[in-house]
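stage 2 :: seqdesign
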């Protein structure tokens, strides 16, 4: 899995693995490492909803100065200019749970750049 957050001179670059799974009549996009979700009636709507929610998450936490604190609370580890994803997020367990409840999830990677 790709989850990574890097801090640079231009801002913060985020790359997240996102699970996409159908639950009933809706599609859900979920990034367990950030606890951010989006949903829609189609996979495209779920991805778009996730992108909006992820953007809001990063914009608001960066604006309030709480991004690093929240990432640490979620189990991310800060090392110099990047965050390492939490080891406590057992991706396999999440996948198995989603598969048992709603079907096999598919994945996509979402990249976000947050200007400094």
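stage 2 :: out
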């Amino acid at each position: 899995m790709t989850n990574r957050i890097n801090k640079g001179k231009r801002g913060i670059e985020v790359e997240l693995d996102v699970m996409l799974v159908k639950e009933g009549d809706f599609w859900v996009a979920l990034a367990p490492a950030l606890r951010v979700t989006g949903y829609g009636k189609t996979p495209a709507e779920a991805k778009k909803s996730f992108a909006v929610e992820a953007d809001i998450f990063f914009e608001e936490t960066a604006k309030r100065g709480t991004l690093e604190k929240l990432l640490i609370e979620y189990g991310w580890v800060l090392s110099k200019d990047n965050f390492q994803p939490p080891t406590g997020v057992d991706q396999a367990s999440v996948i198995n749970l989603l598969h048992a409840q709603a079907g096999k999830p598919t994945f996509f990677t979402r990249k976000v750049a947050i200007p400094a």
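stage 3 :: structure notes
- The beta strands are 4-8, 11-23, 26-31, 36-40, 77-79, 82-84, 106-115.
- Residues 4-115 form one domain.
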